[in-house]
């Protein structure tokens, strides 16, 4: 009876020791259903939520980066259009010679070529942002940014065609120098104003989407923090479990000693009976 009792005690000590070691190793108070079935379910759900928030935050950070790149590119395009209007105004007066007007047109075409290069090269992670593709100047596809844990947590941009074709400047890029008169230059002023307004609308949309994403990001970070704090209730108390582990080790050593002593006594009794 003594031996069986010691064996049972040693088994309990081993189980308790193993449980403490698991908690120290994983940093989690609950590692299996036997620890606390309902508590483990809550902890698992909180961890899943936390991982979801983490991915959603990563998604919004990427989307913010994309809109920032697009905004920066359209700002550069705005400068080009503003300068183009100045050049057209300069060419619109009869005090400018035809030779000077020819030079202005050449400069305008060079700047508009740079305008289109910005449109074709602006991208995030390989996704062109200001037109369909680098070699396709049609409108880009609308972008949908996942900004939460649910399928309908979407922030979307419209399709964009921020190049000379999309903004109605194709005629100016192919204008013949021999027919580029003061009157002809004045005729493009309304065209350039319309292009500037359209580009401002594109810039405004990128800015609005960026604000939405930043607000969503702040909310997600707050929710993730709250979830992590709730889940921390299930984290291992290292001081407690280390103390428990040491205690179980001592008990295991005592149990082993007692069992060894019991076995020695039993062997002595058997030897006496046989002698």
Layout of SSEs?
Blueprint: H1 2-26, H2 37-91, H3 98-121, E1 123-124, E2 127-128, E3 144-146, E4 154-156, H4 170-173, H5 182-187, H6 189-231, H7 238-274
Helix pairs in contact: 1-7, 2-3, 2-6
Helix/strand structural class: mainly alpha
Radius of gyration: 37 Å
Poorly predicted spans:
1-5, 30-36
Rounded mean pLDDT score:
81
**Major sheet: size, sense and barrel closure?**
2 strands, antiparallel
Looking at how many chains there are and whether they match, the oligomeric state comes to single chain
Q: Which range does the strand content fall in? A: under 5%
Give the second-level CATH assignment, the architecture of the largest domain: Up-down Bundle
Distance between the termini: 24 Å
| Count of individual beta strands | 4
The CATH fourth-level homologous superfamily of the largest domain: f41 fragment of flagellin, N-terminal domain
Order of helices and strands: HHHEEEEHHHH
State the CATH class of the largest domain.
Mainly Alpha
Instruction: Classify the fold: give the CATH topology of the largest domain.
Output: f41 fragment of flagellin, N-terminal domain
Record the strand order, biggest sheet: 1-2
Overall outline? rod-shaped
Number of domains: 2
Which percent bin holds the helix content? over 70%
The count of helical stretches stands at 7
